[in-house]
């Protein structure tokens, strides 16, 4: 049985545009509102095995972030199924209890760290344990310190986010994700907000987690990570999975012309 199976995820966004006022023409308020539907996910299927590190590649706007957000119910899909550890959730209409249960097993690392600015590194890591999991503070602090140590930041436990570099802040965010003891971590471009010289330290932590067997689903533009660290690579475009394969195969012998074109373009810009 696979750890995570995603089937047929669909998601559209509707945008409402108010009619522009033209000189001399009277518009009733709200009249002729233009609605357009943007199909962002058009039937995404994906399977993740325990211990897999799956890299999701794709051009900007292809729906990668939307997909990750739908998987953790940060966004409600229009349709789709997610099976986690044998339990199936309807991505379009799960109950609050279902969502809470699923989120206990998952963690999310965002591009922009999303740390509390008025809390120290340690407090950021322990907040969820103390508030959501009702863990006694001493125990939470012990877990927090262990995780900060793991990401190489034990000596920064009492620093506030503004006193940390971007790379360090992202490592705190990873420590926070680890503290909740997730079965899978979703990463959305964890290094793309960082200066190039700071991406290495974050990628090194992720590589270490991969080696320890952590299951991860990583949206990334880092081809080195996809090629050398991830076990499987997925190429998304226009809301569908164009191609997915074991990473060595994906890079050595891409089957789809669209994938080859994408890889050629990337090779030129790197
Ligand atoms: N809340 C929203 N409302 C309306 N449109 C949205 C919303 N979120 C995303 N979109 C649109 O959905 C499409 C897919 O966005 P998404 O952020 O998933 O792409 P992405 O693959 O993550 O791109 P990038 O590589 O730039 O991060 C884009 O056209 C985007 O403008
Ligand atoms: Mg994105």
From TrEMBL:
UniProt-annotated location(s): Cell membrane
Domain of life of the organism encoding this protein: Bacteria
Residue ranges of every copy of the ABC transporter domain listed in the record: 4-263
GO function terms (MF aspect): ABC-type amino acid transporter activity; ATP binding; ATP hydrolysis activity
A GO cellular component annotation in the UniProt record: plasma membrane
Main location: membrane
Protein name: Amino acid ABC transporter ATP-binding protein
Organism of this sequence: Faecalibacterium taiwanense
Organism ancestry: Bacteria, Bacillati, Bacillota, Clostridia, Eubacteriales
